[in-house]
Amino acid sequence: MNQGFKIRLDELRNNIPNEEQPVPETSPLPTHYDGSGYVRNLCIVWLDGKKMFFNYAYLVVAEFTPTEDGNDITLNFSDYQVLLRGFLLAPLFGELQDHRVRNVFQVDQRYINVEDQTGPVITDILVARNE
Predict the structure, then answer these.
(1) Which among 50, 53, 78, 112 is most buried, taking Cβ atoms within 10 Å?
(2) 3-state secondary structure at position 130
(3) For the whole model, what pTM was predicted?
């Protein structure tokens, strides 16, 4: 008998089918990639729960524009243009440049206190298809 098979058989014998298995806690979506990888996507999440993802391989040009009311990041993918508007977006732009951002979440503007924010805050997300 194979040693691996015997160990697995012992595990199956000790299993109690009616015993409830603990449910793992769900963690929030990771916002960044931990290490390097091959396939990277940027997922955009709106306030209403709508989600849309874009593959970094199709990101052609990104532009950071400081404005009087905050910052804008324009991402030009081959078929879509994405506009992220908010506050403190300069660090986010650098992370997008390195393809490290996995999820971007829109935040309701009425709940934002700009003085208390330490990281990027995205208040508006606009997506348009290129023609």
Answers:
(1) 112
(2) coil
(3) 0.71
Give 72's strand partners.
65, 85
Quote the CA–CA distance of 130 and 53 in Å, as a whole number: 16
H or E, element range at 5: helix 3-14
Residue range 33-56: mean pLDDT, rounded: 88
Q: Match 């990277």 to its residue by tokens.
A: 40
DSSP 43-105: EEE-TTS-EEEEEGGGEEEEEEEEETTEEEEEEEESSEEEEEEEES-HHHHHHHHTT-B-EEE
CA distances from 22 to 10, 14, 27, 51 (A): 21, 17, 15, 30
